[in-house]
Design brief:
Number of helices: 9
Number of domains: 2
Strand content: 25-35%
Organism: Pontibacillus litoralis JSM 072002
Pfam family, one: YqhG
Largest sheet: 7 strands, mixed
Order of helices and strands: HEEHHEEHEEEEHEEHHHEH
Oligomer: single chain
Structural class: alpha/beta
Radius of gyration: 25 Å
Shape: globular
Number of strands: 11
Protein name: YqhG
Length: 280
């Protein structure tokens, strides 16, 4: 499920960045990058510095990204949560698309149309224990009635948006303030996290307990074997090393959950389309 969500993210990401998607099939997506995205993602600073210096026209790369585990050995770049390339993509979103304001396109419409404000929040949730797991959450909250919809980016992918409002459209004033809406989304995310199966938490605590017992046993033997008046300094070093090893063990094994905002924005959507979203 995570890889399927990731593939949808890649499709939306490259489409939003005006890249030509050459092929998108069976967990493999081949895209022709734009110059801007090539420069941001493909780690070719010397090439692009040369192109700019001579005033030439660059040749962006064509790249295949793989999200299907069954095809990870095929030609292309395997992408998964935790991939450096994925973090680069998140970074570009933070730099260029942290906050957006878009209006549903109503081309050809000559009737006065009200647009309802929706606040969208895309978040990455990081679960860390014995194993690491990441989850993408895309939430939308209606600022008129407070309805919250999950998988919001998937729901709106067929809707056309524009940064400029259409002549015959007007926006409704939000009833729910942005701060309150963000608090509601935060509670929604917390409830979603608490509803998850916590077996991984128990596993992490048990593994930590077992490894800590081994660590304690080892350092107890080490300390006793050097417990002489002449080895006070060595004992101090042993204790410092124990504290360091214990801190590393805690960081590696104790279960933690953290969230990272990828981007957010205000979307203005017509009443008709909003009704369709709520009925999905």
């Amino acid at each position: 499920m995570e890889q399927a969500e990731l593939h949808n993210f890649l499709t939306r990401y490259f489409t939003a960045n005006q890249c030509n998607i050459i092929q998108d099939k069976d967990g493999m997506i081949t895209v022709q990058l734009t110059e801007q995205l090539d420069e941001q993602l493909m780690n070719r600073p010397f090439y692009w510095n040369y192109v700019k210096r001579v005033g030439g026209r660059g040749m962006p790369m064509k790249v295949t990204f793989i999200t299907n585990p069954a095809k990870k050995e095929e030609e292309g770049e395997w992408i998964h949560f935790g991939s450096p390339r994925l973090h680069q993509m998140f970074h570009t979103l933070k730099q260029t698309g942290k906050i957006t304001r878009q209006y549903e396109s109503k081309t050809g419409n000559t009737n006065q149309t009200s647009l309802i404000p929706w606040l969208i929040l895309n978040v990455s949730v990081h679960y860390q224990g014995v194993q690491k797991r990441n989850e993408l959450l895309s939430l939308g909250i209606n600022l008129i009635n407070g309805a919250i919809l999950p998988t919001f980016m998937d729901r709106i992918q067929t809707i056309s948006f524009s940064p400029i409002i259409h002549d015959y459209c007007f926006t409704l004033t939000p009833i729910i303030r942005t701060t309150s809406a963000l608090n509601r989304l935060e509670r929604y995310i917390q409830n979603d996290i608490h509803s998850q199966d916590d077996a991984w938490v128990q596993e992490a605590h048990q593994t930590y307990k077992e490894e800590k017992e081994l660590l304690d046993y080892f350092f107890q033997l080490d300390t006793h074997s050097n417990a002489t008046d002449e080895c006070t300094e060595e004992e101090r070093l042993v204790k410092e090393r124990y504290k360091s090893e214990l801190a590393t063990l805690q960081e590696r094994l104790l279960p933690t959950i953290s969230t990272e905002v990828i981007n957010t924005g205000m979307l203005y959507i017509s009443q008709q389309t909003t009704s369709q979203l709520l009925q999905q």
